[in-house]
């Protein structure tokens, strides 16, 4: 016959093991979310960079037109 204390400790051990499993699953979920956010961040930074290039190009065209009109 198993000692009641051992039985109780085994139950507690099972509960703790389940909590560990749950936390590991939660961690994997958070890591997946983080990866998605990082990818979205890279995409947005690339879009911003492209838009900044467009701004510079438009500014140069404006300056060119203004210089032609003043000469």
TrEMBL record:
It comes from the Bacteria. The keyword Coiled coil applies. Residues 27-68 form a coiled coil. Keywords: Coiled coil. This is Uncharacterized protein. It comes from Plectonema cf. radiosum LEGE 06105.
């Amino acid at each position: 016959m198993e000692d009641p204390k051992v039985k109780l400790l085994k139950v507690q051990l099972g509960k703790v093991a389940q909590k560990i499993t749950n936390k590991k699953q939660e961690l994997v979920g958070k890591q997946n979310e983080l990866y998605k956010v990082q990818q979205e961040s890279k995409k947005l930074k690339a879009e911003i960079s492209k838009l900044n290039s467009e701004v510079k190009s438009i500014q140069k065209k404006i300056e060119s037109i203004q210089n032609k009109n003043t000469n």
